[in-house]
Structure formats: structure tokens, C-alpha cells
Design goal:
By secondary structure, this protein is of the alpha/beta class. It is 40% helix and 24% strand. The strands form 6 sheets. Strands 11-6-1-2-3-12 form a 6-stranded mixed sheet, sandwiched between helices. Strands 16-15-19-17-18 form a 5-stranded mixed sheet, covered by helices on one side. Helix 3 runs antiparallel to helix 4 and helix 5 packs antiparallel against helix 6.
Length: 411
């Protein structure tokens, strides 16, 4: 009798244990937070770091993908590997891609987050071999090869590619990413590699119906190394597969090249503030309700209304880095403009204010209101005319002049 009671007691305890384990598992599953959904609850855009490297962790390409699910639009920011600064994680001045090689993707993501002043919650890593596998799974990637390639690498490997718009298989896309031409600058090499990223995103969108087949998806995702679990990565991939990559306007970090300890480093303009402003402005444009602001590249004419030599030319370069097209940079009709002014030729107030916010100019006038500022011949070909005044310091307008707050004019 005692033995029977003991058995019943053991069975009872075992049943309770099973119920407790089942309850814990149920709660764990039901309470598990989807990091992608959580990101979207706190931020309207999804920001992902994509790193392509060789097998020795030498970075070939680094891009920050910003995606706005509401409009299916996005932005792409290239981070050149030779971007220089004092990196806290390294405790020295060096190239930013050394952070990845020495410390890994988490430290790399944190340094890039500081560089662009944006939180980047997700990272995706691809080795060059895995990029080849992904390319073959997608049926090849479409790229443009400007001229035939017949080059020999440092290890003696020969690179051969045809010219023109071509679809490259996995082996060829690895060649396209890795070859180095003697007369090719590092920025040209980065542009070429960034085009592969755009082609990859386009192919993912084009083949998304195939990718999300259960068996295919497992093989496809296994080629990527990510900082989230499989389910979350599937969610992230499903979002990125809707990105209209063909509408992307790639942007990159710009700066001054300086030799440090025998290597050429790119130090961002204005101590890195320019790239922060550019990223912030581009995200703001993505979130705009104005479809034209989201997608259109605006054409500017920059006029120097001061006696400072080269101000229009340098400002034109600044604005090109921010994604604007510059028709011309010229001297204004005189060199004594007190205040910088933006002339809005197209009546798009939001786009004019976006430009104004970027350079700190609130003195915006409409073409039909302030026609005395215009050159009729040039105005017909541009969206905005920017006349630089003495309050422009080369990067921003100082003083925040607003025409409604003062009776003083540019005349």
C-alpha cells in the first residue's frame, strides 16, 4: 500500500513538473519580443548595417540601409573603410574598418552609429564566398561594367570580366567585388561595390516569392550572419524584400584625405557633423508625406553674394554631398548680400524648407514674389536658387535670420 502511494505521489509530482515546464515554454513563446516589431514601435524606419568582407575579415563594403515600410522607400549610406577618426573601441586613430577586423561587428556597428548619429539595431554580415552563394541562389546579379576587366591581383589571380550591362553569377560577382585597377581610386572602388549592394537588394525584391518558399528560405538565410534569431531575421528580410532599391540614391561619407602613420585616411568634413546632418536630412525626407520630396533629386543654382572667393563652388560641393544636383555655381549680381536667401522656383514649400533646414536658412522667398532676385535664364532650369550672404559661414547660416522678424532686406 505504501509503495502504491509513493508511486502515485511520484506520478503526481511528475505531472506538476510537466505542467510547469509547459507553462514556462508557453509564456516564453507568448512573451517573446520580435525585435523588428519592437524597432518599428519606437522608430518609423528600419536601419540595418550590411557588411561584406573577405574570408580574413577585410571589409570590402559597408552600407547602412534605411527602410521606411510605409512607402517602401529607403536610403543607402556607404561608409568608406578608410574613414578616419579616434575610435574609442580601438583607443587610437585608424581606419574604421579595422574596428570590424579586430573587434567584430558589434563594436563596428556602435562606431558607425556614432559616426552617423543614428541607432542601428540590426547587422547583416556576408563573406565574399557567401555573397557568391546568394548570387547563384538569386540567379545572378545585374551590374554595369564600364570597360572590360583584365587585371591581376596581388596574389597573382587574374580577373576577367566583359563590359556593359551584364548578369554575373556567383564567381563573377566575387571577381567584380575584389578586382583592383591601377588607375581606380578608392572612392570609385567603393561606388562599384555599392552598386553590387543595390543589385542584391533589387534581386531580393524581384525574387521574394521564391525566397520565402520554406525550403529555399532556410538555405538562403544560412548564407547570412545576423545579430537576431531566425524568426526575427525572416521578418527583417520580408521588410527589406519590399524595398524599392532602384529608387535608391546612394550617398557616402566625404572628407579630406590625410596621411596618418603611412596610410591615407578620410577625415569627414566639419569634424563629422556634415555626415550626421546628411543622414538626418535624408531620413526626414523619407518620412515626409510629400511623395515628390521623398523621391526627387532637386536641381540648384548656387550664387556667391559675398566677397569670399570660392564660396559658391565649395557650397555646391557641400550640397552635392547632400544629394542635390548643381546646375552651376556662379557669382551673384553683387557681393554685398547681408543675408543668405533661397529662391523657390517650383512652389514646393516643404522641399525648400528641407534645403533651408540643412544649411540653417529660413529666408525663403517665392519666385513670383521676389522676382528681383532672379536671373530669368538660369531660373528656368533650376528648382531653387541659393544666394549666399555674409551670414553664411561656409556650412550654415549664422544668426537664424527670418524675414518676418526684421525689416532689413537683401537690397
Amino acid at each position: 500500500m505504501s509503495s502504491s502511494r509513493e508511486k502515485k505521489g511520484i506520478i503526481f509530482l511528475f505531472a506538476i513538473l510537466v505542467i510547469l515546464i509547459a507553462t514556462v515554454i508557453f509564456l516564453a513563446i507568448s512573451l517573446r519580443v520580435d525585435p523588428v516589431a519592437e524597432n518599428l514601435s519606437n522608430d518609423q524606419v528600419i536601419k540595418t548595417l550590411l557588411v561584406i568582407s573577405d574570408e580574413e575579415k577585410n571589409v570590402l563594403s559597408t552600407d547602412v540601409i534605411v527602410y521606411y515600410p510605409k512607402t517602401l522607400k529607403g536610403a543607402l549610406f556607404n561608409i568608406p573603410g578608410n574613414t578616419g577618426a579616434i575610435y574609442e573601441s580601438l583607443d587610437r586613430v585608424d581606419r574604421i574598418d579595422v574596428v570590424y577586423k579586430e573587434l567584430g561587428v558589434d563594436a563596428y556597428r556602435k562606431e558607425i552609429s556614432k559616426l552617423i548619429e543614428q541607432t542601428i539595431p540590426f547587422s547583416i554580415e556576408l563573406t565574399i564566398n557567401d555573397l557568391g552563394k546568394v548570387t547563384d541562389l538569386l540567379g545572378g546579379l545585374k551590374v554595369f561594367v564600364s570597360s572590360p576587366v583584365d587585371s591581376v591581383g596581388e596574389d597573382g589571380q587574374r580577373y576577367l570580366l566583359p563590359s556593359g550591362a551584364v548578369v554575373l553569377d556567383g564567381d563573377k560577382i566575387q571577381t567584380f567585388m575584389q578586382y583592383i585597377l591601377k588607375d581606380e581610386s578608392e572612392s570609385e572602388r567603393q561606388d562599384r561595390r555599392q552598386n553590387v549592394v543595390i543589385s542584391l537588394l533589387s534581386a531580393i525584391r524581384e525574387k521574394k516569392n521564391v525566397i520565402f518558399n520554406k525550403n529555399f528560405l532556410r538555405e538562403f538565410c544560412n548564407s547570412f550572419k545576423v545579430n537576431i534569431d531566425d524568426d526575427a531575421f525572416n521578418t527583417l528580410l520580408s521588410h527589406l524584400s519590399n524595398l524599392d532599391a532602384e529608387q535608391l540614391t546612394p550617398q557616402t561619407v566625404t572628407g579630406t584625405l590625410r596621411s596618418v602613420d603611412g596610410q591615407m585616411l578620410l577625415f569627414p568634413f566639419y569634424n563629422g557633423q556634415l555626415v550626421k546632418d546628411i543622414v538626418k536630412q535624408r531620413i526626414s525626407m523619407l518620412l515626409s508625406d510629400n511623395t515628390e520630396v521623398q523621391t526627387r533629386v532637386y536641381v540648384l543654382e548656387v550664387q556667391n553674394g559675398t566677397s569670399v572667393q570660392g564660396r559658391a563652388r565649395n557650397t555646391a560641393i557641400l550640397l552635392m554631398n547632400a544629394g542635390y544636383d548643381i546646375l552651376q555655381s556662379i557669382n551673384a549680381d553683387r557681393d554685398d548680400y547681408e543675408h543668405t536667401v533661397i529662391i523657390n522656383h517650383i512652389g514646393n514649400k516643404e522641399a525648400a524648407e528641407t534645403l533651408g533646414n540643412f544649411i540653417g536658412c529660413y529666408n525663403i522667398v517665392e519666385e513670383d514674389v521676389k522676382s528681383e532676385y532672379e536671373d530669368a535664364d538660369s531660373a528656368a532650369h533650376v528648382d531653387f536658387t541659393l544666394i549666399l550672404g555674409r551670414d553664411f559661414d561656409g556650412r550654415r547660416v549664422v544668426g537664424g535670420y527670418r524675414p518676418e522678424s526684421s525689416t532689413e532686406s537683401n537690397d
